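Reopening this one. Same input as before:
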Amino acid sequence: MVKRWLKYGIVLLIAAAFGVNYLIGDSQKVEYGIAAAQNDYKDIIVNDAQQTCFNSGGGAAAGSAAPIPAAFRKVAGNEKLELYLEEKTAAIAVKDKCNGSTWFSYDVSTDTKGNKYSNEVAAYIKSGISIVTYNKFTSGRRTILGDHAKLTYQYRDEGFTATIDFTKAKIKFDLVVALQEGDLIIHVPRNSIKEYNPKLGKPGNNDIRLSEIIPYPFFGSVTHEENGYIVLPDGTGAIVKLRETPKYATGYSAPVYGPDPGYEDTPEFTPRRTVVKPLERITLPIYGIIHEEGRSGLLVIAEGGAGYANYNYVSRDLQTKFYQSYFTYTYRTQYAQVQSRTNQDQSVLSFQEEPNRFDLVQRYVFLEGSKSSYVGVAKGFRNFLVQQDGLLKQAKGGRDKVPMKIDFVNNEVAMGTLGVENIPATTYKQAQKLVSELKEKGYSELSVSFKMFVKDEWAYRFTMMNQLGGSKAFKEAMDYFSANGIKFSQYVDYARSWYEKTKYTASKLNRLDVNVLNENKAEYNYLNNPKYYSLLAERDLEAFKKNQIGELALDGFGNSPFTHYDHGTVGYANEGMAYTEKTLKVLNDNGMKTGLYLPDAYLFKYASAYYDTPVISSNLIFIDATVPLVPLVLSGYVDMYSPYMNFSSNDTEAILKLIEFGVFPSFVLTGESTYEIKRTGSSDVYVSQLKDLEERIDNYHTVVSEALNNVLDSEMINHMIIDDGVVLVEYDNGRKIVINYKDMEYRFQEVRIKSKGFVIL
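Same output, byte for byte:
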């Protein structure tokens, strides 16, 4: 009898296990496959021909005075632009009829032989488009001139299509170049790319595979410009002046939307590992070249293929005498294919069979007059997002006080005596009490998030935790927030797990788990396969609705554009982006608002709030100034909150930076001692109790409010560096803020601005 019941019990347990597995989604049953967004570039015009041309008397802009050589034939023209083509090289010239300037894809006035460039470098400068290939496993650059590529052309009213055949490498593709009113579009259709060596991949063959396409790397390049600079998308934004003698002759290269961990080896974490501060992420797929501020400039957008784009800056006197700014696009990268499950050092280099699947589309927007500045670069890209994504402006007049963001660490986990244990850091009642204390001090515009680690998921998700007070205490907190106008959001991360992989963890192309080292926390994150994002979100919807949660604070989606392996299928970065968008759309369609932590530009349209707004660039040695590209794009469209200001080493300058960029302060708090989270995923939070932060919070909120209360819900329409350490910011309600970072008083238009201070005009 006992044996019979034991047998039935085992059967029931197995059935229950299968039932739970069914409810949460079996990782083997979710088929991979989603249609990546198709580019609609023909429906978008950033530089509208209906706009009035700026004209200051004609003539070519400085640095663009060379006449168009006879080798360049005119192939298209409209009210704003004329397009010229050098058929031998596929090089182009674009004449801006509004201001008389001409933009060349290489400097036609330079004698490459006289400057003693090698044949290889001279061919790279002049060739309109170049590629990088792998010869077996050795990469090398190939140019139209250097490889004697075969070119055939088809002409249309708006431009041309060049079929470019690198016959030695047996790689060919189409390059479409077209005027679109005041914009220039270049397009490499993915279906035109052919690697036509019949022996490719076969034993004994000298394989040559496509790795990168480099379109017009010298477009707009110059030796120097007195009043010009390059606009870099590094972090919040930066500029490098086009000096005759560069500040530092160096280069910079970084992937748009971050590195692709699907290819990369995960660095090994050891106690002796030296942690180097990582570069700031590139979240805007743009750059700018300003030849003459206030007269002639250029915005370039990686419109199709941003998930595989790399931004590159090259100083003059490093490789050539030209300043360069350009994108490259990755189609294939080598990776280490592990040969042994027990010894990962046993590996061979390998490639994915097919090049990455995306249409390369790059848009050039020609800026005239006052738009020829880093402000014009940002506003031009914002105009693009409005047309492409329907980005909407905020309603005005809903509030009169600066909001502040408070994230509560509610629960973490740590290794205890009996295994992994929950570490309650802030109960629901403690959070309610702390918010009430802030409310009593006059903080009327508070945005609050609960952040809890769920050890069954190895991730930050939502669940009702008895250790935090259970459902009754949670409901009381929600009711209090609702009654007192406190904006609440639940912190959730569907993209990552911590400490351990889960059934949702993605695989690299070499079949190993996709994990990345989080340098700040000295922990590994395992990245989920993007196909599970929406499944996880849909699973939580009922609980969100049941517990009065109408908004989420979503983290981790900055990791979504990566390449991975899924049961015989390659998942591409643009498909990961599509899965992320699908998830946010599912949430929005179900009435959930979605605040996002450091989102990439393609997600801006889903952001009800922007958290962790970058307020710095990487501060590389060649940078001349950090400028607010991201705030200029989003100001007046979405509330922007700072990274946690608990730990600032210089509060005075940090406060001025928030004022300059129009960003609201944000803090992270715990009800218990900070010591409780010392050995958890929040180990980088080393001061978190209100009693220790109260004076700092008061200082930030008071000073930021003094400035930004004047411009709430207004759009930042101008930003000017009027002197070293002095900036002026202008808003569409007519108010101006002048900020003085200097160690001495500064006088501006009869107004005195104290050291480390600001004035409202």
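So the earlier flakiness isn't reproducible anymore. For the record, The radius of gyration is 28 Å.
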